[in-house]
């Protein structure tokens, strides 16, 4: 199902009208209608608030399906035992079966020492890297600008890169981190500067990288705050 279809279903499950949902999100009813009709998508902040209001995960709202691979545990090899004397055959057989059961149980059952330890998430690079829902945070005067966006690369770490409009000036970079369904990053731009493009680059565990254009024409004021920009996603 599409995002719009999921939004309609979860909104009606909560017994809310478009007007009621729009009021809780501080947006117009027309905005909610456009989301449900597939004419537009909410930004990352609104998408997270929708997830909280409708008690639905980001995967459930956006219709993204996670493919789970089955785990196959090989059967242990039990070393051959010397031929027992006839009167001990049954007891030896029971002991061997018990040992095998305990061995397999050690593989299948979680160890109390490793319980609740999350597995390391690695970004699996898609055929085409995409990004959407780009939004920027307010500059508090420190010169640091924060941003948030969604991507079809759903784990790991990456980076964002600002390329200046003038030749001879260095590009600016910042780390991008995936957490709670959203990519976040911070960077420090030069004051009174215009940057040509902003890119997001994701990499996998083998060092392979793919990039996507996030925005262009980013203009910063004398305090390093972002004045204007053109979203490409």
Would you mind describing this structure in some detail?
It is a single chain. With 233 residues, the protein is α+β, with helices and mostly antiparallel strands. Among the domains are: 3-62, 434 Repressor (Amino-terminal Domain), CATH 1.10.260; 131-231, Immunoglobulin-like (Sandwich). Helices cover 27% and strands 28% of the residues. The chain is built from six helices and eight strands. Strands 1-2-5-4-3-6-7-8 form an eight-stranded antiparallel sheet, with no helix packed on it. Strand 4 (172-179) and strand 5 (182-188) form a beta hairpin. Helix 1 crosses helix 3 (29-37) and helix 2 (18-25) packs across helix 3 (29-37). The longest helix has 20 residues, at 89-108. The radius of gyration is 27 Å and the shape is flat. Mean pLDDT is 79; it is low at 106-120.
| Distance from first to last alpha carbon | 22 Å
Order of the strands making up the biggest sheet: 1-2-5-4-3-6-7-8
Please state the CA-atom Rg, rounded to the nearest Å. Answer: 27 Å
Helix content: 25-40%
Per DSSP E runs of 2 or more residues, the count of β-strands stands at 8
Average of pLDDT: 79
Give the second-level CATH assignment, the architecture of the domain at 131-231: Sandwich
Strand content: 25-35%
| Structural classification | alpha+beta
Shape, per Cα inertia axes:
flat
Short description:
The protein is built from 6 helices and 8 strands; from the N terminus they run H-H-H-H-H-H-E-E-E-E-E-E-E-E.
SSE inventory with pairings:
Blueprint: H1 3-13, H2 18-25, H3 29-37, H4 44-53, H5 58-62, H6 89-108, E1 131-136, E2 144-151, E3 157-164, E4 172-179, E5 182-188, E6 194-203, E7 209-220, E8 226-231
Antiparallel strand pairs: 1-2, 2-5, 3-4, 3-6, 4-5, 6-7, 7-8
């Amino acid at each position: 199902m599409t995002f719009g279809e999921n939004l309609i279903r979860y909104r009606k499950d909560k017994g809310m009208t478009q007007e009621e949902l729009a009021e809780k999100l501080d947006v117009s009813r027309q905005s909610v209608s456009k989301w449900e009709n597939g004419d537009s998508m909410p930004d990352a902040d609104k998408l997270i608030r929708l997830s909280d209001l409708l008690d639905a995960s980001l995967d459930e709202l956006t219709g993204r399906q996670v493919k789970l691979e089955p785990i196959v545990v090989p059967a242990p090899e039990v070393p051959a035992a010397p031929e027992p004397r006839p009167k001990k055959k049954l007891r030896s057989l029971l002991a061997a079966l018990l040992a095998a059961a305990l061995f397999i149980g050690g593989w299948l059952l979680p160890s109390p020492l490793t319980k609740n330890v999350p597995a390391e998430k690695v970004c699996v690079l898609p055929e085409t890297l995409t990004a959407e829902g780009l939004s920027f945070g307010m500059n508090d005067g420190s010169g640091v600008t924060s941003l948030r966006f969604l991507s079809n690369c759903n784990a790991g770490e990456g980076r964002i890169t600002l390329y200046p409009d003038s030749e001879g000036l260095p590009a600016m970079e910042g780390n991008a981190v995936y957490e709670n369904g959203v990519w976040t990053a911070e960077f420090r731009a030069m004051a009174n500067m215009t940057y040509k493009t902003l890119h997001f680059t994701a990499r996998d565990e083998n060092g392979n990288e793919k990039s996507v254009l996030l925005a262009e024409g980013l203009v910063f004021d004398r305090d390093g705050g972002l004045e204007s920009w053109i979203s490409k996603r």
